[in-house]
């Protein structure tokens, strides 16, 4: 991002990106029982300051993350020790435009199937690189994975008891050796804030196409 602060703390429509994200899951119609916010140790004070500055009163528990995404999810999962059953969602803090419909559908699919992930069909043509050059892939058979990624909590705990591998890119890749992953239709507006132009697009969506 090249900004002066972590991207989850950057302003979006006058509020931190992370506040928008947290608000999505605090929607009372979703009936989420507990929100765990995982942050690096050196970002805790900055988040506390933002909570004071923006009077953030949405219920959530802050947990210190680890050196990798895998370790951070494991730490967050440990904070749910009081829950022996149910469905847990893992979500990117920099996906602030996730609709309640996508969240609810992914939770419901995980309740029915054990593991579910929001995903969309690629809009662009896709090519695979090889030593001989590149070749086209059938994008109708490909999906771009988003979050939330939802799992039966016991299944996710079993997956995170296994050793971490370099091939783990998200929670679905951690779980898939234990259980099939059900795909749920995501939303193209559910973008991940990664580069400066993403913030411009996100603000345009918020002001033009309210979710």
UniProtKB/TrEMBL annotation:
Keywords: Isoprene biosynthesis, Nucleotidyltransferase, Transferase. GO terms for molecular function: nucleotidyltransferase activity. Pathway: Isoprenoid biosynthesis; isopentenyl diphosphate biosynthesis via DXP pathway; isopentenyl diphosphate from 1-deoxy-D-xylulose 5-phosphate: step 2/6. Its EC number is 2.7.7.60. Transmembrane segments: none annotated. It is an enzyme of class 2 (transferase). CDD domains: CDP-ME_synthetase. NCBIfam families: PRK00155.2-3. PANTHER family: 2-C-METHYL-D-ERYTHRITOL 4-PHOSPHATE CYTIDYLYLTRANSFERASE, CHLOROPLASTIC (PTHR32125). This is 2-C-methyl-D-erythritol 4-phosphate cytidylyltransferase. It comes from Hymenobacter glacieicola.
